[in-house]
C-alpha cells in the first residue's frame, strides 16, 4: 500500500468531485471504488476513504466552476501569493482564496489555456493519503490546447521541473515532478480535442481490472467512452459517471476493488 505522508509543493495533493447532485455522485463512486463516505460537520462535503485513508472529496460546485467534474488541487504554501503569481502569468480566478475551517485554504483558477485547476494551502488536511493504488488516484494529466504556454505557466507559477516524454507532431508530452517518480503529465491535445472542448485536467484512478471496472461503470449508470486499451504505460479505460464527469481507469493490479 502506497501511503503518502507528505506532498511536494506545486504538485497534486488532493482531488474532489464538484457536482450538481452530491447524493447521486456519492452513491456512484462509493459503489464503483468501494469507498466509504465521511460527511463534514456541515454535511455539505464528503471525504471518501479507502481502508480508512483519505483518497478524494465530493461537494457542490464552487463559484464559477462549471459542469460536474473532477478537480485536481496543487499544493501551495501561500494561497494568496500563489493567486497573485497565477493571475500575473495570465490565469483567471474562478474561486478566490477561501478558508475551509481549520483544514486549509483553497482557490480555483483557469490557467492561460482555460484548464480549471485548484490550489490547496493546507493546515490540518494535508491531502490524499494513498496514491497509485486500487481505489486511489494514480495519475494527473493536463490536456492542453495551448501546450507551450501552459507548460511555461505551471513551470513559472508552481515551480515544476519537467521531463520530455515525447516531442513529435503525433505525441508531445512532458511529465512533471521527480523524473524517477513523476506526479503527472501534460499532453499537447490541440489536434485531438473535439471543437468546443477546452483544455482540461483529468484524473486516473487505480482498479484491479479495467474491463471489469468498465462494466461496473455501465451497470451503475455511467458510460464507457473508450474501451480498455493497452499501452507501454499500462492498461486504461476512459469513462464518465452518470452526471457526465470524465475520468480514467488505470489497471494497477489485483485487489478487492473493481
Automatic annotation (TrEMBL):
This is VOC family protein. Residues 11-122, 135-252 form the VOC domain. It comes from the Bacteria. Pfam families: Glyoxalase (PF00903). CDD domains: SgaA_N_like (cd07247). PANTHER family: GB|AAF24581.1, GLYOXALASE-RELATED. InterPro entries: Anthracycline_SecMetBiosynth, Glyas_Bleomycin-R_OHBP_Dase, Glyas_Fos-R_dOase_dom, VOC_core.
